[in-house]
Structures are given as C-alpha cells and as structure tokens.
Structure prediction request, 210 residues.
Amino acid sequence: MARPDPTLEPPGLASRPNSTTVTQVREYRLITPLFGGGVRPAEADPVTVVRASEVRGQLRFWWRAARGGRFNGSLQEMKAAEDRLWGAPARFDSQGKIAAGQSQVHVVVEPIDAGSDFVVRDPRSGRPLSAGAPQSPYSYGAFPLNDKQDATLRENVRFRLRITFPAEARADVEAALWTWETFGGIGARTRRGFGALVCELVDGKAPDRP
Prediction:
C-alpha cells in the first residue's frame, strides 16, 4: 500500500456538495528555527518539513483558544461545534449508521523551501555544538537535543498553505488562523519560541496588519 502524502488531507468537504466554500492560499516563513515536526519526535523531516495534519491540529487547538468563550462554559457545546468543524473519529449515530465525522476544513501544504540545518557554534571556540548544550544561547528551549545527537534544527523554512472551508465558517477559521500565526508555530516547543512563523501573502497579497 502506498504511503499517504503527508502534505494532503482527506477532502472532508466532498460530503457537502451544496455548501459554498472559500479557498485561501497563504504563504508562510519561519522566523525562528524549527525543532522537530517530523514523524520522529524531536527530529525535523528534511523532505516533508511541514505536514498538513500538523497544521490542522494547530488550527484546531487555537480555535478552542480563540472561539471557546462563546459557549458560556459548556464543554459539551464546544466539543460538538469543534467536531462539526474540525472532524471527529468515526462513530455510530442514533440510527446505528456510521457517522464519518469528516472535517469541514481541507488543508494542503505545498513546500516552498525546506530550509537548511541551523548550526550553533560555541561562542568561545567557534566549534559546532548542540543547540541544547549549556553554553548555547538556545539551551533553554532546546535542551532535549542533548539526548538526541542526530536531531537537528532547521531555519529559513517556507511553505504555502491552501485551506478550503465552508463560507459560513469563515469567522471561526480565520480566528484560528490569526491566533495560530500570532501565538503558535510549527514543530515542537513552540511555546519556547521555536517554529514561530509569519504570514507573508494571502491570495498573492500582503495581509492586513493590525
């Protein structure tokens, strides 16, 4: 069986033929080194640097942060809305039929530049060293690299995100996108400053900045 393309996701909108959809093409550049993000923990994949499933997982998380307050504290209502928009595991409905729970948001990632290894050097000797070494200025966030000698950081990564969603979900999806772009990132340890990104183009034009 052929390995699924990790830059693609199943077209969940296929079951909504009457829905008016919106497609946006957004281009991103990482402004801090990427840590992890591959199929192996703490390792960047030099081929598929950014995976579609990872992006959608980030958007799902940031949707909760940006839109969760409108459910008046009801976790059940929030979970139901989340599953409708972002998908849920297949399950049986009230009539005993399998409900697929497909996502209404379809994500495609197109690599632009896989970047290059981020090399850290000892400030005294100039020799390369692990980004997590105590003398490294990045040790606070990258110390797990000390246990993985083959793990690397990557810099100058750029990718294109093609995202399709129902028009009625625009506010939800764009809120998730903005929050992810502002506070999130790609890969591991994004809360320690790794994998931060900037959106450079939306449908070929510079995005509006607040």
Remarks:
- The radius of gyration is 19 Å.
- Residues 52-67 form the longest helix (16 residues).
- The longest strand covers residues 21-30.
